[in-house]
Amino acid sequence: MAHFKYYENDYELAVLELLESCGWKYQCGYDIHREKDDIILQDDFQEYLSRKYGYFSEDELHTLISYITSYSNQSLYRSMKETYKRLTRGYTLRRDDGTDQFIDFFDFGKDAEMVNVFRAVNQFEFEEYHNRRPDIVLFINGIPVSVFELKNPADETVSIADAYDQTHIRYAQDIPSLMKFDFINIISDGANTRYGSLFSSYEFYFKWNSTNGEDYNNADGIESLHVLIRGLFAHRTVLNILSNYIYFPDNSDSNLLILPKYYQYYGAEKMYAHILEEYEAGSGKGGTYWGATGCGKSYTMLFLSKRLTTSVKLHKPTIILLTDRNDLDEQLSDDFENAKEYLVDENSVSIPNRKKLLEKLANIESGGIYLMTIQKFSEDISLLSRRRNIICISDEAHRTQTNTEAKYVISKSAAKKTYGFAKYLRDSFPNATYVGFTGTPIDATLRVFGEVVVQYTMKQSLDDGSTVGIARLPGPREVQLDEKMAQACDEYYRLQADAGANEYQIEKSKKDMTNLKIILGNPDRLDVVVKHFIWHYEKRCEEHATVNGKAMFVCYDREIAWTVYNKVKALRPGWFVKRKCAPEYEGSHLDRDAIEVEKIALVCTNGKNDPAEMTAVIGDSKTRKAYARAFKDDKSNLKIAIVVDMWITGFDVPSMDTMYLDKPVETHNLIQTISRVNRVFKGKQEGLIVDYIGLEGAILTAMKLYNGDITPVNGIETSLVVFKDFLDRIIQLMHGYDYSAFFTESISPLERLTIIEKGVEYVLSEKTRKDNFMGFTLRCKKAFDVCIGHEQITDQEVEQLHFFLCVRSVIFKMTAGDTPDATLMNKHIAELVNRAISSTYSGKEFNFDEQPTDDIQMLFSDEFIEKLKKIPYPNTKYQALVKLLKRAIKEFGKTNRLKAIEFSKKLKNVIDRYNSRNTISDVEDIINDVVDNLSEELEKIFNDLKQEKQSFENLGITFEEKAFYDILIAVAEKYGFKEQLSEDTYIFLAQEIQKLVGNKSKYTDWTNRQDVKDELYADVAKLLKKNGYPPKTIDVAYDEIMKQVENYKQYAD
Asked: What pTM was computed for the model?
């Protein structure tokens, strides 16, 4: 019976079929008449121009294509940015008849689907520095706009991570002239489908979870591919994104390219449509955008602003962006002032004071994007403009931007009428349309800005991976507020929000809060808090439970913050030594603006009565800006920020994963504050709040604002249960092996290493046990990272976990291609692992991932092979042989590609049989015999490889010539004429080919010059034909020769 095997090509054809069903015409690259370095599909380009503009001559066509493709820069980022600019801004063509005609390269109008030509092409071979063939390239009007890299869903050894590496390394380096058009990069392996940019890290590739903006579909597997193609690559959607939603900042040191997430795209589109509708109706209420904190509302506002500024219906509108805090205004201003080119408006300006407000906005006639705090509007600012096409967008609209009605402040003598900033704003622009963006909506928000037009919930944000979860760890009980004091806090915040609160009530509440400060600032209490903070922070760093050590300590007020700062300084003076970067980044490339800074900083405003020393530490606004840059720099020495109000809203440091909270925070600000740790960052599983106040009740109260959407903070008990559960599973898994002596103090270091080695062997002896052990230990460690310091975790449990992680890491280093498990171990365990590895490899410290030449030569020594044979544990010996043999084959492949492929196939055959060993028998002795036999086969491959490395000497030729000799022999064997030529002939031909290649190498970068390669082909063909090599095989031999030349050149460089 025949068995159907699913290949990557089958998946490729399925994706193409899906694209066809969505209106993309399919064509195989081999059927397109073009040169291999042609980027544009000329027939499609000509067809589009004919549909839109009529006939173009060949010269005119060449001029347009040259304009699109000609820009080249050593930086792929700059090349893509300029190419995108040219494509979206169009070009004025001087026609053959002397007239000028403006050309749009895409039609974004109502007839776009009829005018544009949409094509999906596979097998699109492109040649530049190397010959590469991306799986699928999407073209609009013959212009590439997206590259798909696919991996076989049926092959468990590859994933979208491999697809990511292939596009970001091989394609980006080898075919940059094509990849500068890859504005939307797609990676898929059937189980996962993601999109992103060539300048995004892997963590910032996302799913597209909707086809229309209405239905939410967080599907995995093949369904996620369907949703992405039907949603993102719907014709009008992809055209709209190309036109309005690809953002290159005006200046970027980090190669920043922003693509919209699906909810940002659909959200901005819905807000845009609603604003136009309300603008026509004249309601003044543009609607409310309710987005989960941390989901990127700033970029959604940027995208929306682009749609508004380029809207024909709004006739060059003026956009006013409002915040209620200077730090938020500065952050938003930085984004918008660096987006003038994107917004197609050079007049993006931050308004620093009321004088500038009057100067810039009084009777403004059209256009402009202005950013300011709402506090600049007061009763002193009267009417500025009656224009209707002014759009005011308020960030964090729930706080200070809804107070449009009169309030009465009641005192003993009278009731005084007052108004808020929002009233004066509306007096200044009475006919404007007002739009609210908020993460914490309240009824007043809807009353002022209108209905919720877009809602992106916390649950969606977590499910999408736009944010990470948050866990809460209670601090020591003795420092938390009692129930009575907590109620006083709640009452204070309620009264602050109550417009009708009388003077007596306010005064009583203030007295309660004075008592609260006395409690929170009690020196003995702060001693306990600071000591716990230092212990917990150092413990998390020691256990690698934090991705980068970035933490924030939130204090009740400036005075207490100063006290905390000094208490930390007394206990950890080493934290106050200034350095340019953290010790782990010494010697690495640093940001050009990097400053020398302490590990910990006090970030708050100055006070009039501050002591001189405090004033010196706080500095001025320039100091705070420098701190902000340093804290956002992952390599900076600044790891901990002590704050009060600054930075707890609207300040993003993605790597920050820990917050020490010693401040009662009211409902609206609470969600904002704790969300500082929910940003996505590589390796970050969850954010952690260490709660010194006791905010569990406050969190539940705050959640009422979200209509029961989802609790943003998980109790630490969840992680504690997971930790204990998986630790117990690991203990049960290891039941057959006694490792208890590992924890005794009297044991010698050598005996401890032996216990680790035997533990490794025990785990490796069964595939299922090994797979479960690796998975259980990883989940156990991740849970432990969150609940470090919990009183219910015993020292014995921590010791057990460390032992299991030690075994895990040895296995990982023996079986994986790299060693990320180093991040799972504290320093003590890491040292044990390294010694265990050294012991396993017979006493020599041997890092087998990246070896110097001398160590590679040592691999093939008789002495080293004999030492490997003496490893007493069958599975450990097998894994060591596999790992080192892979490394040896890789090294050998640098000089002889063809033979390396042959040895790789032999190795894979042995590995496949090892992986199926559990199906042979459950009897341990029989399995060990099987493993021993497989190890013997590996030793034979080692010996064969060693002999192969030296075989060129026996033939009397160089190792470069031997590679060409092997190619000639392999082709001759494949086509059955090996015996027709003598051994001396093959040797002669190999030597002559090496001479021909050597002659061509005098040309700079000759492998990328088609004329030189054509000459080499002619010379090789002539040489082979003259010496009896059959003509029909010359092309095959030449292709292999060129692959070998490029392979050798790659490693020689």
From this structure: 0.75
